[in-house]
Amino acid sequence: MSQLTDDLQQNYRTFVEGIKATGKIWGLSSPEGWVVCDSEEYEETDVIPFWSDEAEAKAHCSDEWADKETVSIELEAFVAEWLKDMDADSILIGTNWNSELAGLEIEPLELAKALLDENA
After folding, report:
1. Residue 115: its pLDDT value, please?
2. Which end of the chain is less packed: N or C, by CB atoms within 10 Å?
């Protein structure tokens, strides 16, 4: 049963806290590449969805994403490499999308700050 709800702010807090606790972030990938979606908020902007929990990510491996697999990325590499590259490419992070594929779309540098903030 999913822990994610319609409260997108709470899902985002769960995302940041979960990644800090485990040191991993989860995405969906296949030999063709990572899942990339169109932003719901910004025209001509891509979003890559990520989850703080493997089970939540795996729950999305159905329908059009049935050929995808969950892949983990270490937090250090995600912050140092992924977020930097995503910022340069103007790609947003979809955080803990729920079963309706609803979730906050966060700027890479904003997420890096949240993940590196010891008090958050």
Report:
1. 94
2. N
